[in-house]
Amino acid sequence: MRAQPASTTPTRDEPDLGHHGDAEVGDGLVDLAVNVRRAPMPDWLAEPIIAALGDLAAYPDNRVARAAVAGRHGRPPEEVLLTAGAAEGFVLLARALTGVRRPVVVHPQFTEPEAALRAAGHDVERVLLDPAEDFRLDPARVPDDADLVMIGNPTNPTSVLHPAADLAALARPGRVLVVDEAFADTTAAPGVPGEPESLAARRDLPGLVVVRSLTKTWGLAGLRIGYLLGDAALLARLAAAQPLWAVSTPALAAATACASPAAVAAERAIAAGLTADRDHLAARLSALPGVRVAGRPASAFVLVHLPGAAGVRQRLRERGWAVRRGDTFPGLGPDWLRVAVRDRATIDAFTEVLAEILEA
Ligand SMILES: Cc1ncc(COP(=O)(O)O)c(C=O)c1O
Q1: Is 233 exposed, middle or buried (0-12, 13-18, 19+ CB in 10 A)?
Q2: What's residue 13's pLDDT?
Q3: Residue 300 near ligand 1, beta carbon < 6 Å
Q4: How many CB atoms lie within 10 A of CB 302?
Q5: Which of 31-40, 82-91, 291-300 has the lowest mean pLDDT?
Q6: How close is the Cα of 287 to the center of ligand 1, in Å?
Q7: Atom of ligand 1 nearest to the CA of 88
Q8: Ligand 1: does its nearest atom lie under 6 Å from the Cβ of 87?
Q9: Does residue 301 have its Cβ closer than 6 Å to ligand 1?
Q10: How much distance in Å is there from the Cα of 214 to the middle of ligand 1?
């Protein structure tokens, strides 16, 4: 880790970057720790995945899926790299961008981008966003000479949705700007037909790579499907680091299906419904003593500040509820929890148990 400039903070008390919400579930607990939507798979998605099982003797051919995803985002196919989930995208970036001298990761955020960079031998610098400023991005805090910048939008775990203009202001020649939009499909804004603040269709920003995942909204975490969007030459460098046939035939079938206009319309409807459930969760949580919901949550989860959260999380587990610990995210600590948005009945049952724990 390099010496700390003014805009970054040290990595003392190093959090466990390899910890993920899936380690907190199981044992019959109600899962509010993992941000994958749980709903029956629609037929238009299940049918092509199942049909692909009949083609497993052939090696995967990604051309149809690549063209479909490109069409969805208004880009040529060369500006799409299909990956085994967004997670593979981070590894490809870390391994292929060998010439990077000053990589910066904006935290708190999903820990895999930094973990992948470090595993590939990069000397990673952190910019920590301030809870007192609701984790808002000030682009000026990113060092001018950072030649790789990684940021999430909306961000896991803060649920903050940064304005597209602030992210665009980070793009410049000589820098790769990676915007993790794994949860962009969960965002919605009144009067906005598409995903507010997404850069997925922006072809004018130098060095922009947008990371997308299909595993969250469509409940495909076990299938592993995502993609990168960006400049064709840059993606070709990343593709050279990818194993042959990294994305399986069923995963490609899912990518094609999820790129259709009907799928995108369904995604928008899900995001709108999520907004109502999220507002309900945030209101219930905010009504509890000592609980503060961070910022204006915009995604499928809510970040909560609660003195003694680590102990509360333990008591929740004893009562059958799993929430995501906050202390493994750089920039947070033991007083933070992340709670996934679920249906109203689940939210009400959860917040009642939480109220009892806090009152005890
Ligand atoms: C912000 C963020 N980006 C990317 C990923 C990885 O997604 P995938 O399942 O597509 O690899 C996750 C998974 O939790 C995530 O939270």
Answers
A1: exposed
A2: 66
A3: no
A4: 26
A5: 31-40
A6: 30
A7: 11
A8: yes
A9: no
A10: 9
Which atom of ligand 1 lies at the shortest distance from residue 225's CA?
10
> Ligand 1 centre and the CA of 359: distance in Å?
35
How much is the pTM?
A: 0.94
Q: Is the CB of 156 under 6 A from ligand 1?
A: yes
**303 Cα–ligand 1 center, Å:** 17
226 lines ligand 1 (CB under 6 A): yes
**Three-class secondary structure assignment of the chain:** CCCCCCCCCCCCCCCCCCCCHHHHCCCCCEEECCCCCCCCCCHHHHHHHHHHHHHCCCCCCCHHHHHHHHHHHCCCHHHEEEECHHHHHHHHHHHHCCCCCCEEEEECCCCHHHHHHHHCCCCCEEEECCHHHCCCCCHHHCCCCCCEEEEECCCCCCCCCCCHHHHHCCCCCCCEEEEECCCHHHCCCCCCCCCCCCCCCCCCCCCEEEEEECCCCCCCCCCCCEEEEECHHHHHHHHHCCCCCCCCHHHHHHHHHHCCHHHHHHHHHHHHHHHHHHHHHHHHHHCCCCCEECCCCCCCEEEEECCCHHHHHHHHHHCCEEEEECCCCCCCCCCEEEEECCCHHHHHHHHHHHHHHHHC
In the prediction, which pLDDT does 19 show?
A: 80
Ligand 1 centroid from CA 196, angstroms: 19
Report whether residue 275 contacts ligand 1, using a CB cutoff of 6 Å: no
What atom in ligand 1 is closest to the CA of residue 226? 10
Condensed to tens digits (0 to 9), the pLDDT of residues 146-204 reads 999 999 999 999 999 999 999 999 999 999 999 999 999 999 999 999 999 999 999 99
CB 282 within 8 A of CB 350: no
Distance 283 CA to ligand 1 centre (A): 26
